[in-house]
C-alpha cells in the first residue's frame, strides 16, 4: 500500500503542475497589463501560501483531504476567467503540495527517498504544460479531468494521516534556528538559479534538461538514504560547481543541473526534522523560499556575475549552509 500511495501522490503531482502550467500559459487571457500580475499572484498563492496552509494541515491531520481539495481547486480554476483562475489554481497547488508532501513526510521515517520521488514529477508536468499551452479544448479537458481523477484517488485510497501533535518547538542539536534559516537560504538560491539559468544551448536541449531536473530530485533522496545526507550534498554540489564551469558544453551543463537538484529532497527532509511537530509548516517555509527566489527574476534584478560562473558560485555558496543545516537534525 505504501508504494501505491507514493505512486498516486507522485502521479497527482505531475497532474497538478501540468494543469496549472497549461492553464496559466495557455488558457488564461489576462487583460492588458495584467499578465505580470497574474504570474505574481499565482506564484504567491502556490508557494508563499504554503506556510499558513501547512500549519493548518498540521492541526487538521487530514492530509489526504487537503491534497484532494487542492486537486479540486486546480480543476475549478479552469472555470474561472482571468486573475481569479490564476489565484484559484495557485491555492489548489498550495493545498495539494502541503497535503501530499506532509503525508509523504509522515511515511518517510528516517529516510528521504520517497520524498524525492514525490517532488520529482512536478518539473515534467510544468514542462509539458508549457509545451502544450497552445492546445485546444481536448487538452484542457484532459488536464482538468486528470486533476479531478487524482483528487478522487487520493481521497479514496490515501486516508491515513498520522501528524504529530502541533508544536513549533525546534528539535535538533544546538543552533537549530540557524540551521532552519540555512536550509531556507539554500532553497532561495536554488530557486533563483533555476529560474535565472540561461545556457546558450538551452533551447535545443530542453528535454535532457527537464530529465536532469526530474531524475536529480528523485535520485537525490535515494542516494542520501544509501550514502548519507551530508555526504550526498557535498559530492553533488561540489561536482556540480566544477561541471558548471564547463557549462559551455551541453553535457557538462546538464550533468551540473542534475547534481544541483539532488539537494531538493534533502532540504525538505532536513526542515521537517527540525520541526517534527509542524512538518507542514516546515514544508511551507521552504516553498516560501521558492517564492523569494522567484522575485528577483520577476523584478528583472540581475547580478554582476552571470552565466556559468554564477551557477558555479551558487552551487559552492549553497554547500556550507546545507551541510550546517543537515548536521543539526537529530539522526
From TrEMBL:
Domain of life, source organism: Bacteria
Protein name per the record: Uncharacterized protein
Native organism taxonomy: Bacteria, Bacillati, Bacillota, Clostridia, Eubacteriales
Coiled-coil ranges (or none): none
TM region positions: 6-28, 35-53, 65-91, 112-132, 138-158, 170-193, 205-224, 236-260, 280-302, 309-327
Keywords associated with the record: Membrane, Transmembrane, Transmembrane helix
Keyword Chaperone: no
